[in-house]
Design a protein that fits this description.
- The chain has 13 helices and twelve strands.
- The strands form two sheets. Strands 1, 5, 6, 7, 8, 9, 10, 11 and 12 form a nine-stranded mixed sheet that branches. A three-stranded antiparallel sheet has the order 2-4-3.
- The chain has helices at residues 8-15, 17-20, 32-38, 72-78, 102-110, 128-137, 148-155, 193-202, 211-235, 249-262, 282-305, 373-384, 390-393; strands at 50-56, 66-67, 89-90, 96-97, 113-120, 163-166, 182-184, 268-273, 313-319, 339-344, 351-353, 371-372.
- Helix 5 (102-110) packs across helix 11.
- A hairpin with a 5-residue loop joins strand 3 and strand 4.
- The chain has 403 residues and is α/β, with parallel strands linked by helices.
- It has a single domain (8-393), classed as 3-Layer(aba) Sandwich (Alkaline Phosphatase, subunit A), CATH 3.40.720.
Amino acid sequence: MRTPIIDRRRFLLGSGVLAALGVVGGVTTVTVDELTSAAADRPRAVGDGVVVLVTMYGGNDGINTLIPYADNAYHDNRAELAYDPDKVLHLDDTLALNPAMTGLADQWKKGSLAVVRGVGYPNPDHSHFRSMDIWQTATPASAVHTGWVGRWLDATGDDPLRAVNVGPVLPMLAIGEKSTAAALNTTGHRMPASAVATLSAMGQPAGSDTAAESAVCRSYDAEKAAAATFGPVVTAQPAGSAEKAGDSLSEQLQTVGRCVKAGVPTKVYSVTIGGFDTHADERETQERLLGEFDKAVSAFLTDMASDPRGRDVVLMAYSEFGRRVKANASQGTDHGTAGPVFVAGTPVRGGFYGDEPSLTDLDDGDLKSTVDFRDVYAELLDKGIGNDPTPAVGSDRRPVGFL
């Protein structure tokens, strides 16, 4: 039997140990002035854009998120799973938000929420792993080992704080050929000194290193920079709060918000929420998850809108695929294809973008995509943070128009 080969870079990234090697500092409180001082050598200027990526793991049911309440095919295919028209948050005469999404409904009224409909990719795959891999690498036609944000990092310099994942395990989107995003551990748990020493030794540069192994060493340098800059931010809490920073989406976005307002020079943040694989008893589960998502995102957007640097932030939320049109026998939905992507923030031109997929003209029971997800990414890079999107997502992308 052949022994599998595990290179240092894959082991260190996959196990999440990069963040555990010193990202979290020991400071328990910090003022806004101290945070500003930490970024004083190269603060992000007001007007310099920031993108926050929210990954909704599990395959969120887009049809019960952006609800076609006026379409008879919706009610015919979903029976008990469908929402009555008077129970949803109307956006226009045909579409509505899930009743749990009151905060984003308010953002829609303010004109700062864009809903890109029918987002997907060619030849869709129903596997969670492959579909998320496609979304995060932005290469539907073939499997590659770099993510779209990673390729943007490769093309834009060597500042280790350009992209930060809030959490100790880097997603595929954050890994480039030469660079990776910094992983920010919000739990405060540190590895034993002996493990730190061993793993640090694995990351020491050597003349025989391959390009991938050299990337490991650069990652350690990035983590040292992240530790000095983000440690105080992660552990800082509002006055009178006993709550510790943790893993919920709300806490992740609170951390991002503190970093943004402090002037930390990060351009792209990545946060996550999971649990959306709703094959059974979907309605209650999804409504609860969408409520958590909505509360976290709307609070973050409101906070950002009140701050000069925060008004530069654009947030995008996506999932690896939507669900099938017809409900299954367990009052859930099975893996589908296209779904809505939400883009919000002060720079956003609110409204609908892309055509709403038909519920009757289907591809073997699945929605037909009307917008390529790489067009969304291209606009975030081009208009959101002012960089050429070509190295990350390829050329000839079509503008969506939400920025």
